[in-house]
Request: fold
Amino acid sequence: MRRCTCLLVYLMLSAYTFNMPRYFTPAEANETLELIRPILEEMMRIAENIHAHQPELWDMVRKSAGNGGNPALSEILVDFDRLDGFIHNIQDMGIQIKDLIIGLIDFPAMHEGREVYLCWQFGEGDVEYWHEIEAGFAGRRLINWE
Reply:
């Protein structure tokens, strides 16, 4: 069931087109993180709520189609709508959401003339790591530059 939830979130994330990338310095990424951290926490709570109700979602949809609706389904749909709005707002800031379940985000940056990502995961303090675009999370290195 987790794969299906991840697929739904992936489809929501991929529905947005990205404009020219905004590049963050480590200091700008940390300033922005302070603004969006509460939003990310709420997004993760919503995603967990959706995930928790996923096995029963289809049954709710099927039963509500001919019965005038379902309050539980309506609540989940409101969560989807709120999550969609949050995702759009975060991505409009130039931040890439990599994994909503674990709270993983990337801030595009320039380092030594190439694009890299400043990487942050929920539970970490500041943005302290970066990685090459192709390396992903496994290639994270400590930021030792401004």
Observations:
- The mean pLDDT is 83.
- The chain has one domain: 2-8+22-142.
- Helices lie at 2-14, 26-64, 71-92.
